[in-house]
Design brief:
Beta-lactamase; 2 domains; 447 residues; eight-stranded antiparallel sheet; globular; 13 helices; two-stranded antiparallel ribbon; 15% strand; alpha+beta
C-alpha cells in the first residue's frame, strides 16, 4: 500500500475503518407500544403478528428501556436515528423508531426507512447458495475451482524477496466451498493489514464496484491467496465470490436469483441492490463524525451511490433493506427455513449454516473474540460465558454502517437494529440493546 497515490491510500484507509464489521457481538431490546409510524400493521401477516410482550414472556416496562436508550443516543448527538425490532415466539413484540432519517431536513425516522445493510447481505447470500446445495448443484467439500475456473491453480503468499517482490508457494489443497463460506479459504479484504496480497487487492481495485461479478472474480483469481486454505479465519471478499457461484450454478444473474427465490417468496418488497426513485424519500442519510465529534452527513465509501442500479451485485455487502424485510428473512431462518407456508430451506440444511464449520486445527480465533466460531456466513456463540452472551448457539452478523441483528434459538427470538453510522464515536448499540432485551425476559427458556 506504500506505493499508492495519496488519494487512493486515503480511500482505502477510509474503507478499512468502515468495513470493519468484526465487532458484531449483537444485542437487542424493545418496547411495549408498537410504533407503526411509516409502517402499515395490515402488512404484518400471521408469522409476525403484533402481540404484547407479556404474552411472549417479557416485561413491557423493562422492554421500553431499549427505546429510551436509543433516544438518549439521539439526544446526545451520537446517532441520527434508530429503528429497533424484536420478535419472540414468531410474534412481533417491539418495533420502534426514534430520531431522524435526515437531520438536515429534520425528517423523522420511520419504521419503513431504507438502510444500507452492507455485510448483513452475507447471510442472505449464504441462504441463496444453500438453496442450490439442496438441489444437488455442489457439495461443501467440492473445490471452488470445479465451478469457477477463474479460481484454479491458486498460489499462496510466502513472503517477499529483498526487492519487495511477492514470493509464492503451491496451495496444499484446493480451496473448498466450505472454506469459502466460512472465511477460511485464504482470501482477505485487502484492508485490514499490509502484506503483498493486501496491496495487490488494493492495486487491482477489487472493491471499486465497477466490475461484474465475473470480472471481479477473474481479477481475484490472478492474486495469490494470503494464507493456506483452511489454516486461518480471515474476514474476506469470499461472499462476493459466493454471489458469482450462485450465478454460475443457477445460470442467471445473482440479483434475479435473489428476487425470484428469496425476496419475492418472503415478501421482502424493499430489499434490492439500490433504492428506486419512488422509494428515495424513505432512504436514511448516512453519517460519520467530524473532528469535533459532531454528526456529519456523507457516504462512508468514496463513490458509493445506492440510488443507481449497480454493475457489481455484491453478495458481501451490496443490499439495501428495511427492518421489516430483514426481520422476515431472519424469522424464516429461525423457523428452520420456512415463513408463512413458504419454505426456502429444510431445517437440517439451515442447521448446517449455524454449526461451527471452521477446521479443527485452524490457527487463531474467529473475529478475535472468545467463545465464538463461524458457520456458513454466520458467526456463532459457542461459549456464552467467554463471549459475554446469553445463549449457546446464538448466531449473528452486522453491517459496516452500524446495522446489526442476531437470532437466539434458545430464547426463540430475533433482534434487528438499523442505524446509518460510521466512525470511532459510534456508541455500542449492540451491547446496550442486548443487555436491555435480555433483562426484559421474565420467562426464559434457557434455564
Amino acid at each position: 500500500m506504500q506505493n499508492l497515490p495519496l488519494n487512493k491510500k486515503a480511500n482505502w484507509l477510509v474503507r478499512a475503518a468502515l468495513i470493519n464489521v468484526i465487532a458484531f457481538l449483537v444485542a437487542c431490546a424493545p418496547a411495549a407500544d408498537i410504533n407503526t409510524q411509516g409502517s402499515s400493521t395490515s402488512s404484518l401477516n400471521k408469522a409476525l403478528e403484533i402481540t404484547s410482550p407479556e404474552e411472549a414472556g417479557m416485561d413491557s416496562s423493562r422492554l421500553n428501556s431499549i427505546t429510551k436508550a436509543m433516544q438518549e443516543y439521539v439526544d446526545d448527538g451520537l446517532l441520527a436515528g434508530v429503528v429497533t425490532m424484536v420478535a419472540r415466539d414468531n410474534k412481533l413484540v417491539h418495533f420502534e423508531s426514534v430520531g431522524y432519517r435526515d437531520l438536515e431536513s429534520q425528517s423523522p425516522m420511520t419504521n419503513d426507512a431504507l438502510f444500507r445493510i452492507y455485510s448483513m447481505t452475507k447471510p442472505i447470500t449464504g441462504v441463496a447458495l444453500m438453496m442450490l446445495y439442496e438441489e444437488g448443484k455442489f457439495r461443501l467439500a467440492d473445490p471452488v475451482e470445479k465451478y469457477i475456473p477463474e479460481m484454479a491453480n491458486l498460489q499462496v503468499y510466502a513472503g517477499e524477496d529483498a526487492e519487495g517482490n511477492m514470493l509464492t508457494e503451491p496451495a496444499n489443497h484446493k480451496m473448498t466451498i466450505r472454506e469459502l463460506m466460512s472465511h477460511t479459504g485464504g482470501l482477505t479484504y485487502g484492508i485490514f493489514a499490509q502484506s503483498g496480497v493486501d496491496s495487490a487487492y488494493v492495486e487491482a481495485g477489487l472493491l471499486d464496484n465497477g466490475d461484474t461479478l465475473e470480472e471481479f472474480t477473474t481479477k481475484l483469481g490472478q492474486i495469490p491467496l494470503k494464507t493456506q486454505p483452511g489454516s486461518t479465519w480471515e474476514y474476506s471478499v469470499s461472499v462476493d465470490v459466493q454471489g458469482y457461484l450462485v450465478e454460475k450454478l443457477a445460470e442467471k444473474s445473482f440479483g434475479v436469483f435473489l428476487e425470484e427465490r428469496i425476496f419475492e417468496p418472503l415478501g421482502m418488497t424493499d430489499t434490492d441492490f439500490y433504492v428506486p426513485k419512488e422509494k428515495a424519500s424513505r432512504f436514511a442519510q448516512v453519517y460519520g463524525y467530524d473532528d469535533d465529534g459532531k454528526l456529519a452527513p456523507g457516504e462512508g465509501f468514496p463513490g458509493a451511490n445506492f440510488l443507481e442500479d449497480p454493475t457489481f451485485e455484491s453478495g458481501g455487502g451490496g443490499l439495501v433493506s428495511t427492518a421489516m424485510d430483514y426481520m422476515r428473512f431472519s424469522q424464516m431462518v429461525l423457523n428452520g427455513g420456512e415463513l408463512d407456508g413458504v419454505r426456502l430451506l429444510a431445517p437440517l440444511t439451515l442447521d448446517l449454516m449455524h454449526r461451527d464449520q471452521t477446521p479443527a486445527n485452524m490457527a487463531g480465533s474467529v473475529l478475535g473474540a472468545s467463545g465464538t466460531s463461524f458457520g456458513l456466513d454466520f458467526a456463532i456463540i459457542e461459549d456464552p460465558v467467554e463471549a459475554e452472551a446469553y445463549s449457546k448457539g446464538e448466531y449473528y452478523w452486522g453491517g459496516a454502517a452500524g446495522t446489526w441483528f442476531w437470532i437466539d434459538p434458545v430464547e426463540n427470538l430475533v433482534f434487528v437494529g438499523m442505524i446509518q453510522q460510521f466512525g470511532r464515536n459510534l456508541p455500542n448499540v449492540r451491547a446496550t440493546s442486548k443487555r436491555l432485551l435480555y433483562q426484559s425476559i421474565i420467562d426464559p427458556y434457557g434455564i
